[in-house]
Amino acid sequence: MTYHQLTTEERYTIATLLKQRKSQAYIARELGRSPGSISPELKRNRRTDGKYCAARAVKRTSRIRRESRQKWYFSDLEWQMIIALIRLDWSPEQVSLWLAANKIFKVSYPTVYRYIWYDRCCNGDLYKHLRQSNKKRRKRYRSADSRGILPEKAHISTRPKAAENKSRIGHFEIDTVHGSSDLHSIVTIVDRKSKYTIIGKLEARTKDELNRRTIELIKREVNQVKTITADNGTEFHGYKDIEDATGTKFYFANPYHSWERGLNENTNGLIRQYLPKGKSMKHITQADYDDIALKLNRRPRKIVNMKTPEQVYVR
To answer: What one-character-per-residue DSSP string does 199-267 give?
Structure first.
């Protein structure tokens, strides 16, 4: 339910009902409001004697609105553009850099952040479009790899130079992202140069299911995927079947060296904006995942000079 600020009439109604010694719950029912919206109103607008003052509340609200108009000195059209970009799930920094790069107008990203938090204080929902990352990492640098050994796997150090220095399109990183305790999850494949992201739905956490979906996604890219770098998870132990089916060469990072696939780690964090930890992926379709990938691929990225991954990938 969307919250709307109390009107002048409602504030005077509150004052009248308080004089009649009505409870906050009764007042909330009479106004059709939640009880939680009445208590803060009473606390914010007390006189020195502790009693609620409707006139004080109306005056305070008018002052806040007047000051907010003076504070946000951009035109309504400019703010509409900023808000539209935030609703596309762009970060404030992306909004700021993209507007400047395209010579539309300049706004600092701290200003955009301040506006978003001001909007939240006014019960707006722009903050919900900010991505949040609370990933907890378990450091096990000195631990042995307990997930099986593939004696013939190619080490990350033997990757082609273009894969290492990100100079050419076609060298990807791969990972899986799990939802709730059910078996449904996703595989993510990200190009190291362009940051172009491909997402595939997995209906089981097995190497056979991962192979099936990965082969399908690679073939969809029409010989664009030259190499893939993976971690040492058991789901990738069938990698040779993918190599044979697609001609794509697999390379493997050192165990527990997540920074060697930092792009995948970062991309999975961006995907978590749409697929929070603990959320079941059972009813999410491949078309839904394609839409998420499209959003990420059409979002300008600082790391590619404020171009979109889609623009860099298709050149």
So the answer is: EEEESSSSHHHHHHHHHHHHHHTSS---EEEE-S-GGGTTHHHHHHHH-PEEEEPPTT-GGGGHHHHHH
Residue 168 vs residues 172, 197, 266: alpha-carbon distances, Å: 10, 15, 20
For residue 251, is pLDDT > 50? yes
| 8 Å CB contact between 228 and 187 | no
SS3 12: helix
**Which pTM does this prediction carry?**
0.63
Reported as a single tens digit per residue, the pLDDT across 153-201 is: 899 989 999 999 999 999 999 999 988 767 889 999 999 999 999 999 9
* pLDDT at residue 84, as a whole number: 92
For 279-305, what is each residue's pLDDT tens digit?
Answer: 888 889 999 999 999 999 999 998 899
Residue 186: which H helix or E strand, with range?
A: strand 185-191
Beta bridge partners of 172: 191, 228
* Structure-block tokens of residue 46: 């007390």
Q: Are 314 and 195 in contact (CB under 8 A)?
A: no
Structure tokens at 43: 């606390």
